[in-house]
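Predicting structure from sequence has reshaped protein science. With that in mind, we have picked out one protein's residues alongside their backbone shape tokens:
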Amino acid sequence: MQTDRAPKPTFRVHFHDGTCLDISAANSLIAERDARKKRPGSFVRKIKLVRSNAAEPTRNHPTNGEAP
């Protein structure tokens, strides 16, 4: 029996010392738990969902002062 499972999302866990880890997990709490295991004694500052390039909306404004 084959089960079709969606891939786990990737979360970026940022620490107060400026480092970050990308963790694949079912939810942000599990990502935080796994990141704390990899960096014991560090303080988590924030956790963000990493989007794939295909999912990001296109932007129609100039970047870095360049004309479109």
In short: Helices lie at 28-38.
